[in-house]
Amino acid sequence: MRRTNQILHISRDNKFLDFAIHCFEQVCPGQNDYLILQNEKNPKPITQIKHDAIHSISLSRAIKQCADKDFLSQYQAMIFHGLSPTELKVLHSVNGSIKVIWFGYGFDYYPLIDYYMQRYLGKKTIKYWYNNKKGLIKFGLKVNEYLPILSFLKSKSQIKNFERVDYFAPVLEKEYLEIKSRHPEFRAKYIDWNYELGNEIFKSIGSEYVTGTNFLVGNSASITNNHLDCFELLTPKRLKKNKVLVPLSYGFPVHFKEIIKEEGSRRFQSQFEPLEEFIPFEEYLRKLRTCGFGLFGSKRQQALGNIYMGLALGIKIYLHPKNPILEELKKKGFHLYDFNDFKKEKHFDRPLSLDFQMENRELMRQMSLKENYLKKTKDLVKLIDTFE
Question: What is 198-367's CATH superfamily?
């Protein structure tokens, strides 16, 4: 028997949640509750979620409610949109037999693959990272770089944080398989659902393509973007008079943002344009249209939203050769490139050919069809309907 409120969603103020609400309200309208966690000591206005279906709740009250079997009994499942330390506190309080679903973001599950993230850092980036460590910690991390036993043991110790998760949706299925291969005791089953941002992007970009030849680097201040290694590729001969746009509105670790700004300003001077604050989406699109080239230095799945936008706008996208997204998108037929191609490129005075821009946009349009992303939500809701 279906309950009145079928699904309980738990999230922080999160720019991706509007997409999820849009999907679930089309598939099972009025049968979802969306609780947005707030710090009761320092509550902040919700700025990233635009949908009015949400309800703010203090972290302490959310913990109390999720420990109440009677409260949870009105739902068939609960979905966590990302599991930062904040959401983990709620997860650990969940009482009763309710099924728990985790929509992974990357930052929350990559530590299960490599806790210290060293395998995802470039040579220049890891050098700066080490400079912030001291003594035995620095020595231990350098040893771990070549013999990653410390990272494995730390990752193994984190598995218990996710014991209450019944179903897990990472961005890529291969990421789930890698976690399972490293940690066979990880009990959550795989489900195919993710934030396919293509539809919203496609509706916003209009008919225009890129108009400039600036360079976009990364999607955030997160250290795994390997900004410093990307900057090495932007020699004066390649850059010429173009600008280097670097989104820095969020990311971890917080102090690394300042290192990126210092190095960008030193190397590129007035041509360096850090984007430190969230700006309206239309304004962000205008800035992206000035970019003919996009460099994404992450060795892991990251920055899909910006990569999708770049492909749809006609930006010539370069990914790190180890990034699993490179293979995934090439299989789909997209024209995109890796850093080895970038090093061989001789002409940065013109972006991707118009034919390739048009083909990339059409492929993105096909990926963005409403039926595609709604099907995954319908399949998930059908699964939830089977829960006792």
Answer: Glycogen Phosphorylase B; (3.40.50.2000)
Give, as one character, the DSSP assignment of residue 299. Answer: S
Whole-number Å distance between alpha carbons of 34 and 21: 8
Could you tell me where in the chain the CATH 3.40.50.2000 domains are found?
Answer: 7-112+156-196+370-385, 198-367
Q: Could you report how far apart the first and last alpha carbons of the chain are, in Å?
A: 8
The fraction of the chain above a pLDDT of 90, given in percent, is: 68
Output DSSP code: residue 326. H
Strand pairing partners for 80? 10, 102
d(CA 112, CA 179): 6
* CA 19/CA 281 separation, integer angstroms: 14
CA 319 vs CA 54, 264, 316: distances in Å: 36, 20, 10
Closest CA to 101 of 111, 89, 91: 91
3-state DSSP assignment of residue 91:
helix
Length of the chain: 388
Q: What order of strands is seen across the sheet that includes strand 272-275?
A: 272-275, 244-247, 214-217, 291-296, 316-319, 337-338
| pLDDT one-digit tens code per residue, 291-303 | 999 999 999 989 8
Tens digit of pLDDT for each residue in 246-265?
999 988 788 889 999 999 99
pLDDT mean values, one per 10 residues, the chain (388 residues):
74 91 93 93 84 94 96 96 96 96 94 87 85 72 73 87 97 94 95 79 82 96 95 95 95 87 96 92 92 96 90 96 93 96 89 94 84 87 92
Which helix (H) or strand (E) segment holds residue 142: the answer is helix 135-146
pLDDT value of position 198: 63
CA angle 215, 219, 220 (to 5 degrees): 120
The CATH number of 7-112+156-196+370-385 is 3.40.50.2000
Q: What is the pLDDT of residues 52-84, one digit of tens each?
A: 999 999 999 999 999 999 999 999 999 999 999
